[in-house]
Design a protein that fits this description.
This protein is an alpha/beta fold. The protein is 40% helix and 13% strand. Helix 2 crosses helix 3 (61-73), helix 2 (19-42) runs antiparallel to helix 9 and helix 10 (325-337) packs across helix 11.
Length: 410
């Protein structure tokens, strides 16, 4: 594209405002890269770990060591890292069904879970938790923060088997929960009810801070490998990390109670999973900077954005309120046009399963649906908010912003 001097000035001004915040993102990335490198060295990762297996996959050293590697990186006792997990939603569903039984009660302390998880929890006649007699309670956030008083009341007056914390924010207009907020909630739960399981939906939050929820009193976390921890390289998969006795129950749900993680082959091999995990801290830092730049540029132009400019996000998502259906559509189309894959495709709003309004999406990604790669979507209802996530390189995000600014005719 031909660089527009006015747009270049806008980007330069925004970057100058973000210098200090970008420096902190670089420090976080270096810390996490060191942690990941130490784990690779401690586990003596070699070419032998990349080979695939077939059939039952007994003694699959690549699979088993990948699980050990992730457990060390996330500060957990053990982990499941598997291409047999098809998405973050699947990882979360496996965890909930593995840990909860008929008569148990789940308490969400971060408000309503993401849309696709709500059907798993409360759907009717679809094999949901509700269908299996598992109870659900919810505590809404107050001004974007956890309602700690209500948590205490709920734990003292109810038999809560599992407390659920959603780290990211879905389509809500609020910041993602910080590690400090998650730790405060986890510490509170354990002080009142030590045996209550604390589970965190870690999607979009991995490597955005110095520590992970499992290093802060959370018992078990789950997420997707085509988001942050796959580094834009993993072709599929999901993970669950946490205390061994809990992860073992989830493993029994993934395969069967008699075999757990003793089996599970993947003929294609594991190199991309190892390589993606190694690259993840840097790729996440690019995604964080990209979200911050989107936020700063559009805030400077008078739009309402989250995260607020210069605030380091706790996930990789930036939200922009356009207040106009046409502008939101043109923005999403510009993201698609700026994509390396399917740049010629023109997105249109459509009735997407699981959503109560039409959604328009841009996802010109190497891995289909990978939201660690630059992508965006907008539910077409007022105030016409666009949600942008990912970017394998910061430079790609800068170019995409240029396309977007030209599209909405600044």
């Amino acid at each position: 594209m031909t660089l527009n001097n006015d747009i270049v000035k806008i980007l330069t001004t925004a970057e100058n405002k973000l210098k200090d915040a970008f420096a902190e993102v670089d420090r976080i990335a270096l810390f996490n890269q060191s942690k990941v490198l130490d784990a690779f060295r401690d586990n003596a990762i070699g070419q032998r770990h990349f080979s695939g297996t077939n059939g039952y996959g007994y003694d699959d050293i690549g699979r088993d060591t990948l699980c050990k590697l992730a457990a060390q990186i996330f500060g957990a006792e053990t982990a499941i890292v598997s291409p047999m997990i098809v998405s973050g939603t699947h990882a979360l569903s496996l965890t909930l069904f593995g840990l909860l039984k008929t008569g148990d009660t789940m308490l969400s302390v971060s408000g309503a879970p993401y849309d696709t998880l709500q059907t798993i929890i409360s759907g009717k006649g679809n094999g949901s938790l509700r269908d299996y007699g598992i109870n659900y309670k919810q505590i809404d956030l107050i001004n974007g923060d956890i309602n700690y008083t209500s948590i205490e009341d709920s734990l003292r007056n109810n038999n809560i088997k599992l407390v659920f914390i959603g780290r990211s924010r879905g389509y809500e207009w609020r910041n993602a929960l910080t590690i400090e907020q998650i730790k405060k909630a986890a510490d509170l739960v354990k002080s009142i009810s030590p045996n209550t399981i604390i589970m965190c939906d870690n999607c979009y939050g991995e490597f955005t801070d110095y520590t992970e929820p499992t290093e802060n009193n959370v018992d078990i976390i789950a997420g997707s490998l085509i988001k942050n921890p796959g580094g834009g390289i993993a072709p599929t998969g999901g993970y669950i990390c946490g205390k061994k006795f809990l992860v073992d129950q989830v493993a029994a749900r993934l395969t069967a109670p008699s075999i757990g993680m003793e089996v599970g082959s993947y003929a294609a091999g594991y190199r991309t999973f190892y390589q993606g995990l190694f690259c993840a801290p840097h790729v996440v830092s690019c995604a964080l900077k990209s979200a911050m730049l989107f936020s700063q540029v559009f805030a400077d132009l008078g739009y309402e954005t989250l995260p607020s400019p210069s605030v380091i996000p706790s996930d990789i998502i930036c939200s922009i309120k356009f207040g106009s259906k046409d502008k939101a559509i043109e923005f999403i189309r510009a993201i698609q046009k700026a994509s390396p894959i399917d740049s010629n495709v023109v997105p249109f709003p459509w009735d997407m399963p699981g959503y109560d309004t039409q959604v328009i999406m841009a996802a010109g990604t190497f891995v289909a649906g990978a939201s660690i790669e630059l992508s965006a979507d907008s539910p077409l209802t007022e105030p016409y908010t666009a949600y942008i996530q990912g970017a394998l390189t910061y430079e790609h995000a800068k170019l995409a912003i240029m396309y977007c600014l030209e599209a909405i005719s600044i």
